[in-house]
């Protein structure tokens, strides 16, 4: 579903931020990306929907080559849902309108159908009772669950998450991880940047460890946590576990 072939990216001339990245994510797989701050995790997943361009190599999502000038980036972004650290909900729209906006505007879904789909998604994330609330009246955990529902409303093939729980108070992390775990069980293809190693251990099919823009580990969680291959990953694990 996602493929990186020899991908290199620089910021400016000097900063080689992604170094010869090769990776594959199969349909239905959940891949956790971890690594020290500044190692390139956000850059890596942002290249998948062309929020960041690449200088070398190829990225594919299903049958679409992301870094091809002829690729319709708006179409691509319909297929690839993205959940940010800071939920980025529209503050002036109700929960329901946040979720129905893109399906109506972009996918030309009839408002009634969009509303029905949104309500189903709100049930799924446990927030049907908040459909008429505004983002400012929701907790951080609730806002992030709405953001996930909003992403799912476009019926993407892939969902990307960039530290979805790191802006949350500790007591709200669990409810968001639970929604993500349910999504994983439903068969969604997911790439998740997170420091939540419990989630990685329980939910991920694979863990990728990034350091200075290089993939040092790409392995099953079991192996990552018990037999990391590099000193840098051992050091990272000592800090986060
Ligand atoms: P992570 O998500 O692992 O913390 P990032 O992908 O955000 O890492 O950043 C990787 C490196 O690239 C960092 O050194 C960061 O300062 C740098 N960087 C990130 N975004 C930009 C940008 N838009 N321009 C220049 N440098 C950037
Ligand atoms: Mg980041």
TrEMBL record:
Keywords, in A-Z order: ATP-binding, Cell membrane, Membrane, Nucleotide-binding, Transport
> What would be an example GO MF term here?
ATP binding
Q: Does the keyword Magnesium apply?
A: no
The cross-references to Pfam families, in alphabetical order and at most eight, read: ABC_tran
Q: Does the keyword Transcription apply?
A: no
| Residue ranges occupied by any ABC transporter domain in the UniProt entry | 2-237
Coiled-coil region(s):
none
**Could you tell me which Gene3D superfamilies the record lists for this protein?**
P-loop containing nucleotide triphosphate hydrolases
Q: InterPro entries per the record?
A: AAA+_ATPase (IPR003593), ABC_ATPase_HisP-typ (IPR030679), ABC_transporter-like_ATP-bd (IPR003439), ABC_transporter-like_CS (IPR017871), MetN_ABC_transporter-like (IPR050086), P-loop_NTPase (IPR027417)
Q: Which domain of life is it from?
A: Bacteria
Its family remark reads: Belongs to the ABC transporter superfamily.
- Descriptive protein name: Polar amino acid ABC transporter ATP-binding protein
Organism, per UniProt? Chitiniphilus shinanonensis
């Amino acid at each position: 579903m996602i493929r990186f072939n020899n991908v290199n990216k620089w910021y400016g001339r000097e900063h080689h931020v992604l170094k010869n990245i090769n990776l594959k994510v199969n349909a239905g797989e959940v891949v956790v990306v971890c690594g020290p701050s500044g190692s390139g995790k956000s850059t890596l997943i942002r290249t998948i929907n062309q929020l960041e361009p690449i200088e070398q190599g190829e990225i594919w999502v299903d049958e679409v080559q992301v870094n091809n000038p002829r690729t319709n980036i708006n179409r691509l972004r319909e297929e690839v849902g993205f959940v940010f650290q800071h939920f980025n909900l529209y503050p002036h729209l109700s929960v329901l309108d946040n979720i129905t906006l893109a399906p109506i505007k972009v996918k030309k879904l009839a408002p009634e159908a969009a509303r029905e789909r949104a309500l189903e998604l709100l049930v799924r994330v446990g927030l049907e009772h908040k459909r008429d609330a505004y983002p400012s009246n929701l907790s951080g955990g609730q806002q992030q669950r709405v953001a996930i529902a909003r992403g799912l409303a476009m019926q993407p093939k892939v969902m990307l998450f960039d530290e979805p729980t790191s802006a949350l108070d500790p007591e709200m992390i669990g409810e968001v991880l639970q929604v993500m775990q349910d999504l994983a069980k439903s068969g969604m293809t997911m790439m998740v940047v997170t420091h939540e190693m419990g989630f990685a251990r329980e939910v991920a099919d694979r863990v990728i460890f990034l350091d200075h823009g290089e993939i040092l580990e790409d392995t099953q969680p079991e192996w990552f946590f018990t037999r990391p291959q590099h000193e840098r990953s051992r050091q990272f694990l000592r800090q986060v576990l």
